[in-house]
Amino acid sequence: MLVGHMKPDRTLFRRAAYPGLVLLFLLMQFSLIHAGSIQVEPQGLRYPRKERGKKCGHDCMTRGQQNQSYANSDGRMWDMMILLLALSSSSFSEDKLNMCMDAKHHKKVPGPEGQLYLQCAPWRDNACCTANTSTEAHEDNSYLYNFNWNHCGAMSDECKKHFIQDTCFYECSPHLGPWIQEVDQSWRKERIFNVPLCKEDCHEWWEDCKNEFTCKSNWHTGWDWSSGINKCPADRKCRKWTEVYPTPKYMCEQIWSNSYLYTTYSKTSGRCMQLWFSGLNPNKKVAEYYINSAQQDQSFAFIMLVFLAFVQVVV
C-alpha cells in the first residue's frame, strides 16, 4: 500500500459516469432533433383544408400519413437509444475489468509476468506489477516507498507477511477498476477506495498483528519523513495494536485511508476481494459482479432518460 497525503474521495464508480454523461448528451441532442422534425399543426387546423375547391396538393399529408411518419421517427429514436446504451455499457465493462492504476510503480497495462517473487507470484498470469516491484515488496524500507514497518519496534514476520501481501495486491492486481479514483498527488494520479475485502483476510491480518505496536491509525499521512523514512511524529507515542485498532474492521478501513472496505462476506461468496489466493485469480469474477451491478444502475438511469425524452417529444 502507499503513503502520502490523501485528497477527499469522490464517487466510487468514477468512470461509470463518463459513458452515462455522453449518453445523456447524445440523447438530449437526438430528442431535440426528433422533436424538431415533427410538424405541429396550428390550433384548430387538425386536418388539411380545401380552400375554394382547390386540392391540397403534394405538400399536404393525410392523417394516416402523419401517423406513419411519427411511427417511423419513433422507431428510429428507439433504435438509436438502444445502440447508445449498448455502446456505453460495453465501454464501461472493458475499461474497468482489466486495467492498471496510474500510479508510481504500476505498468501501463496488465500482462503476464512469469518471474513474480514469492507472495506476489499468484498474479504472474496477469499483473500490473513487474518482477522488480514484486521483489521490492518483500523488503524493509524498499525503494518502492521507503516505508518503515518497524517504526515502533521490530514487526513480527507473522504480521509483516500481511503487509507484504497487501503490497502485492495493490501493485499487481489488474481487477481493481471498479474502485479506482483520481487523486491530485505528485507521485500518483489514481488510488483505490472502498475495495470490499473478505472477512477472513481482515480477521487473520488483525489476529496476526494484534501483539504489535504502532503510533498512528492512518498510515497514509502524518509521518515524520525528515530522515528519508517514516518515523512517528514527536507528539505520537507507540501504543498496542489493539488500542489503535480495536477491531479487524477498524484496522482494515483506517490503516490506508479507506482504501479497503470491511465486509461480512466470505471468500466463497464471490462478493469480496481476496488478498490471499492460489491458482486462478478469483477477484476477476468479483469485479465482474460489481461492474454488472453498476451497469444495472446505469440502465435504470437510462430508462428514466428515455421516459423524460419521450415526454418531451409528445407533449
TrEMBL record:
<keyword id="KW-0732">Signal</keyword>
<dbReference type="Pfam" id="PF03024">
    <property type="entry name" value="Folate_rec"/>
</dbReference>
<comment type="similarity">
    <text>Belongs to the folate receptor family.</text>
</comment>
<feature type="signal peptide">
    <location>
        <begin position="1"/>
        <end position="35"/>
    </location>
</feature>
<protein>
    <submittedName>
        <fullName>Folate receptor</fullName>
    </submittedName>
</protein>
<feature type="domain" description="Folate receptor-like">
    <location>
        <begin position="99"/>
        <end position="274"/>
    </location>
</feature>
<dbReference type="InterPro" id="IPR018143">
    <property type="entry name" value="Folate_rcpt-like"/>
</dbReference>
<keyword id="KW-1015">Disulfide bond</keyword>
<dbReference type="GO" id="GO:0009897">
    <property type="term" value="C:external side of plasma membrane"/>
</dbReference>
<dbReference type="InterPro" id="IPR004269">
    <property type="entry name" value="Folate_rcpt"/>
</dbReference>
<dbReference type="GO" id="GO:0038023">
    <property type="term" value="F:signaling receptor activity"/>
</dbReference>
